[in-house]
Amino acid sequence: MRRGQLSLEALLAFAILLSALSVMIFAAQGMGQRLAAHAGESTARYSASYSALCLDEAAQSMAGSNAGIVPPKGFTVQNNSIASDSYPFAKEDFFHDIKYDSGGYKVQSYGIEPA
Amino acid sequence: MESSRHSRAFFSIDASFAFLTAVFIFVAFSAALISSALTAQSQSSEIASENRALRFSSYVLERTAVSGGGQFDGHYMANEIDAGKFLSFDLPSAMGRMNASFASIKLAISSGGELAPPASGSPSPKGTYCVERLAVFEGQAARLEACIS
Angle A40-A44-A47 (CA atoms, 0-180°, nearest 5)? Predict the structure, then answer.
């Protein structure tokens, strides 16, 4: 064999090394995507949870009125709950009948006592 | 001689050890990243569940409050619990709103005694979250405990 020429064994070893590297790179990419999704969902859940807390607590004093509060960016209010547009699992239901109307949230009914 | 040294170098113990070390570091780093993501997810679930229990306790305080009379007609006395409303509080309805599997409320009165309507549902294996709130019951301080899971 001349100097500088790769042997079959060397080529095989190089192929194995490249394959292993490819697998690791693909695995890292997949993992990174999953991590980003986890982090995004966690953040969305925090936002949904605090929005629901804020609205449900405020609902006691905003019966039948339009509070003029708008949903956080990237969230939709429907079916008496607030949900993230990007992460559907990040969703919080309201105890009160809160709907989103043009201009803000509205407590639709207030069932404590006939007022 | 030269070429045989080259071919041996690819399978040397040093190279194999370096490769194994790289794989080990990759796996360890991945495990650390995944565990941090799971921790973040668990923390957000914990916060969301605690917030939900807090909202539940506020809802109970509001729905079981004493109604005002006279000039306060149509209003309710904040944090003042009405025994009848408390004991007949519709737990299944509140659970239905939140898709909860379990809910219970209890009122411990400072002078002794306790009011506790029957709990509804069965606790979720993910955990039950309870919140304690100060309330007033017949002029005495009382502690409301609201649990939901």
Answer: 145
Contacts 24+ apart (CB under 8 A), A75-82: A75/A44, A75/A47, A75/A48, A75/A51, A76/A100, A77/A105, A80/B97, A81/A52, A82/A48, A82/A51, A82/A52, A82/A55
B/e letters for B61-75, b = 16+ CB within 10 Å, e = fewer, are bbbbbbbeeeeeeee
How many angstroms separate the CA of residue B54 from the nearest CA in chain A? 8
Give ipTM to 2 decimals: 0.71
Contact B44 A42 (CB under 8 A): yes
CB B62 within 8 A of CB A112: yes
User: pLDDT truncated to tens, each residue of chain B (149 aa)?
Assistant: 444 455 555 567 887 888 889 888 988 988 888 888 888 888 998 999 999 999 999 999 988 988 877 766 667 787 899 999 999 999 998 898 888 999 999 999 998 899 999 999 999 888 899 999 999 999 899 999 999 99
- Smallest CA-to-CA distance from A6 within B102, B10, B70 is with B10
Question: Considering the entire predicted model, what is its pTM?
Answer: 0.77
Interstrand relation of B140-148 and B102-109 (parallel, antiparallel or unpaired): antiparallel
Nearest CA to CA, how far is A55 from chain B (Å)?
A: 10
